[in-house]
């Protein structure tokens, strides 16, 4: 019988945030393929501005857009395994969503070069997601203290400290 030697440590707040982010992305990716939750489902295209399907009747989606949400969710779940990877996911994922926000603002909704069917609601959601993900990474990372020079402890430091009352009794 194989026994795992991996230490089980409690998840950090950052890992939990990464896990929650992954679940949300997976849920959005799945919901984008469900008629009724996605309005104009019959016009769901593979990619590009031709897709007129809208998740919750607000956010334009396509098969590629939904697949990106699913891939982001899977990546977040995998990277939530360690604090460092979770932090990397939130930072780099946040930067990617900020890039998508700028891309959406500069590209416009109906240009053929727009490979993601984004609308104004998508653009502002990407801004909020990017800022929130980066903020989570920064706020939930432990504070680092600059290295200081340490000296070996002296034998006097190993003795218990006596209260004033105890000192008088000796």
Could you walk me through the main structural features you see in this protein, from its secondary elements to its overall organization?
By secondary structure, the chain is mostly helical. It has one domain. 54% of the residues lie in helices and 4% in strands. The chain contains 6 helices and 3 strands, in the order H-E-E-E-H-H-H-H-H. It has helices at 13-31, 63-79, 83-107, 120-139, 155-158, 164-169, and strands at residues 38-39, 54-55, 59-60. A 3-stranded antiparallel beta sheet has the order 1-2-3. Strand 2 and strand 3 (59-60) form a beta hairpin. The chain starts with 12 loop residues before the first helix and ends with a helix. 29% of the residues are buried. The model has no long low-confidence stretch (mean pLDDT 82).
